[in-house]
Automatic annotation (TrEMBL):
PANTHER family (alphabetical): BCL2_ADENOVIRUS E1B 19 KDA PROTEIN-INTERACTING PROTEIN 2, BNIP - RELATED
Regions crossing the membrane: 110-129, 141-162
InterPro entries: Bcl2-/adenovirus-E1B, CRAL-TRIO_dom, CRAL-TRIO_dom_sf
Name used for this protein in its record: BCL2 interacting protein 2
One Pfam assignment: CRAL_TRIO_2
Chief location category: cytoplasm
Gene source species: Pseudonaja textilis (Eastern brown snake)
Localization of this protein: Cytoplasm
Gene of this entry: BNIP2
Amino acid sequence: MTIWKLGPLKAETNPSEESILSGLEASGDIDLDDIDTPSENSNNEFEWEDDLPKHKSTDAVRKGSLLEYTASEEKEEERRWRMYQIGDQGHRVDMKAIEPYKKVISHGGYYGDGLNAIIVFAVCFMPESNQPNYRYLMDNLFKYVIGSLELLIAESYMIVYLNGATTRRKMPSLGWLRKCYQQIDRRLRKNLKSLIIVHPSWFIRTLLAITKPFISSKFSQKIRYVFTLAELAELIPMDSVTIPECIKQYEEEKYKKKLQRIDQEFNGKQEQKSEQ
């Protein structure tokens, strides 16, 4: 008789709505080494207790399936995974999974004298936090962003953080951003000259104000808020900077609302004068 032993059932958490506030908690002084995790010998898998024939192992099945790949399938598999160097270690990135989100980081040309790079980070291209595979996407996107910085930057650089046209679900947690900064090579952290946040929302300004005591004074001095694309153009050359259409529309809508508000205030004053 075959006896099946089931390990303890565990509830899985849904990664939806990982907000910036949750990221703030995640970025605290939590020692992950103190968290208990199942050991390799934990009894969480099916076991056989008789001499009946066993199915092939996962590795064997995987090896067998690889032998059946066609030439085009093998090329597709090679294109799916790419190695990125982060520090002294190489990391595999699932390029197929992050394909819709690769525009999140781009090279915006150079400024000043020499190879001073402009790196554009467009938050509107981030995945939404209510996706079932959100953690997997963010893990691979994290490696892609850090690995791309290593390739794109030669000397000093600035980051243009495009915050406009971004829903709360697309905003990365503060913990994720902090992890990115910590994983950047020391040379790159030192050579970061400026972090320009374009269209900063009230929410992100409040959060940065709250976390200011925990951020080094040197880094705080590098942060600058810019409220329009015209103001950004006064700071950096825009020839090679790609601005997403959604951000252009976002600014146009804000400008129209501003004009409407001015017209309403003006008409209100005119009516008051006529009544007098």
